[in-house]
Amino acid sequence: MNDGRWRGPAEPVPGDEEVLRRILAAEADRIEPGPGALPAVQRRIAAGDRGAAGRRWWDITGRRWWGGRPGWSLPEMTRRRWGRWSPLAAGAVTVATLSLVAVAAGLAGTVVPTPSDRAAEPPPGAVGTDGSATPTTPTGDVRPGPTPSGGALAPSPGTSAGTPAAAPGAPTDSLAVYYLGGDPDRPRLYREFHRLWLRDGSARDRITAAVRNLLDSPVGMDPDYRNAWPEGTDLRGVTVDGEIATVDLAGAARHDVGAATARLAVQQLVWTVTAVPGVSGLRLRLDGAPVDRLWDRVDTAGVLRRASAVEALAPVWLISPQHGDAVGRTFPVHVAGILPEATAQLRIRRDGRVVREQVVTLSIAGPAQGERTVTVTLPPGRYTVTAYAISLADGSEQHLDDHTVTVR
Predict the structure, then answer these.
(1) What is the pTM of this model?
(2) What stretch of H or E contains 17?
(3) DSSP percent split of the chain into helix, strand, coil, nearest 5
(4) Domains in the chain, ordered, with CATH?
């Protein structure tokens, strides 16, 4: 209504590009990149995919942004709003899209393991139903496996010189690798997931990558986890016949260890090999020949199978986050254990000060392996997360498993 009174300067009517910029800014503020965003972005970039009108924008961010129905792509929506598509508007969309991709790329995905060796959903680079592996762009946390075609021999961080390194764009996958830990007189197995280079994603390929990685270092990512095989042990070859894998090692004929460590060293290899889908047993060879008794400590004739979880696995196990992980302020802590009372403890320290302590009731009591995931929220900083049990006999803390993590 115009009553003749002065109301100050009129607000300028925004142009097409300004309206578009505001819409993009508002929508960008709503974007919450989901887990696995980075690998999805990397796959699209590696494939040269620049997008198409009408694509569902949840591919990259993990949630739906724009429609996906015919006629509701961003360019089409803009054309409907203004009746044209100016070069400046197109540039604004390009900049906004690149900004969103940059946000997604800045959030590195973390593999969250379960007590099973297999993830619930195949991570990027996993073998599909057709047996092919999806190429992904390698990231800094990738540990080398066998050298793909065109790869070069080069040392990598955390590995010895001469470790095979893969060519850029080679497929990768997260593979289970087992280590010894806990009481040196009565060690148990702990597992880490390592993202490793692959060639074709076959069972043989995966076993080769995992075993080479196991033998590559005396410790895991967690320095408390150790490799029980003698230094200088090398993988000569792997064959797979049905569900049985044959692993041929060199440099492992002699090793001065006790009987408990010798048994767990064999189980370390068996659990790592049989974590590969479709493989249930292992035949061991040393320098090409069958070995009936290893290090004069443990029988290794015939097909070797996994020992029971009670005999082999740690009584308390901090599954995730893994040692060295960087996590968001709110993150899951996954604890597993084989405890008669199904009760574990969780402690979180920062700079030596306890910031959180709680009881974690596992899903089932021993002799089965129970598990529980709890959600933790912490301010940014560096923390030590410890899972352990309290002795019913004397109240002492037992079976401690701790990982150092960074909260962003």
Answers:
(1) 0.64
(2) helix 16-30
(3) 20, 30, 50
(4) 16-105 (no CATH), 142-312 (no CATH), 316-407 (2.60.40.10)
